[in-house]
């Protein structure tokens, strides 16, 4: 049994996400929401406060709560909407990767497996591709290994989890690179979710960048020199 974890501050888009979960996710999946008190009609729903002012701390807290009961979770942004196939395809791809890695190594180290979207970094973005196959780019039919993902709707295990840094921007980049250094592999799934965009961490991109850079400069100076060069 999995869990889906969501953190929010405004809850602006969350009713639509939760309705898509209600419609398209099996009833035995537990839903954790931080910062929003709505109880889903068909899913066990655990609501938590969100007293933090950044993406990293908000998700670290709700993920830690979910990992008390679950060894595998899906992390979801509060500003996405699932399709009828989002959850199913993501889990199918996770199992394929587990099976594949088990043939290569007796102890496969599977990191993130993340859905594609329409508003996300290029490697995950369905707007970018090399060749059309019908209504999709050929990449959309593949599971691709990458260094860094955005966990808009993404699987991860307790063993692979590394806490986000207490910042809005770049916390996922840093986390993924730390996981890579520990031998974990990150992948992009065939799964897709619609992403409204910029609701989880706010609209002020310049402030998000400067605040995160200041924290990274101060706390991870060697990383900062490489990351921002």
Written account of the structure:
The protein is globular. The longest helix has 19 residues, at 86-104. It has 6 helices and 11 strands. Strand 7 and strand 8 form a beta hairpin. The mean pLDDT is 91. With 229 residues, it is of the alpha/beta class. Helix 5 (205-219) crosses helix 6 (221-227). It is 33% helix and 23% strand. The chain has one domain: Spore Coat Polysaccharide Biosynthesis Protein SpsA, Chain A, CATH 3.90.550.10. Strands 1, 2, 3, 4, 5, 6, 9, 10 and 11 form a 9-stranded mixed β-sheet that branches.
Write a concise synopsis of the structure shown.
Helix content is 33%, strand content 23%. With 229 residues, the protein is α/β, with parallel strands linked by helices. It has a single domain, classed as Spore Coat Polysaccharide Biosynthesis Protein SpsA, Chain A (Alpha-Beta Complex), CATH 3.90.550.10.
- The helix/strand series, from N terminus to C terminus, equals EHEEHEEHEEEEEHEHH
Shape field: globular
**Main β-sheet: number of strands, strand sense, barrel status?**
9 strands, mixed
The fourth-level CATH homologous superfamily is: Spore Coat Polysaccharide Biosynthesis Protein SpsA, Chain A
CATH topological fold name = Spore Coat Polysaccharide Biosynthesis Protein SpsA, Chain A
Name the average pLDDT. Answer: 91
Radius of gyration: 17 Å
Secondary-structure arrangement, i.e. CATH architecture: Alpha-Beta Complex
Tally of distinct domains: 1
Using the coordinates above, name the CATH class: Alpha Beta
Number of helical segments with 4 or more residues: 6
Stretches where pLDDT is under 50 for at least 5 consecutive residues are none
Distance between the termini: 43 Å
- How big a fraction of the residues is strand? 15-25%
The chain-level structural class is alpha/beta
Number of strands: 11
Helical amount: 25-40%
């Amino acid at each position: 049994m999995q869990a889906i974890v969501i953190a929010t501050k405004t809850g602006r888009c969350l009713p639509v996400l939760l309705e898509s979960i209600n419609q398209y996710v099996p009833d035995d999946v537990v839903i954790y929401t931080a910062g929003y008190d709505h109880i889903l009609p068909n899913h066990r729903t655990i609501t938590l406060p969100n007293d933090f002012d950044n993406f990293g701390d908000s998700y670290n807290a709700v993920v830690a709560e979910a990992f008390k009961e679950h060894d595998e979770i899906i992390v979801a942004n509060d500003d996405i909407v699932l399709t009828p196939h989002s959850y199913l395809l993501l889990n199918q791809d996770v199992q394929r990767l587990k099976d594949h890695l088990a043939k290569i190594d007796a102890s496969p180290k599977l990191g993130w497996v993340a859905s594609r979207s329409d508003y996300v970094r290029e490697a995950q973005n369905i707007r970018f591709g090399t060749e059309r196959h019908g209504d999709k780019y050929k990449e959309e039919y593949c599971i691709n290994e990458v260094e860094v993902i955005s966990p808009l709707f993404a699987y991860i295990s307790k063993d692979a989890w590394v806490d986000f840094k207490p910042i809005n921007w770049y916390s996922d980049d840093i986390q993924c690179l730390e996981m890579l250094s520990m031998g974990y592999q990150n992948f992009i799934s065939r799964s897709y979710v619609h992403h409204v965009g910029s609701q989880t961490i706010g609209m002020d991109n310049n402030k998000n960048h400067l605040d995160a850079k200041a924290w990274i400069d101060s706390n991870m100076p060697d990383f900062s020199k490489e990351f921002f060069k």
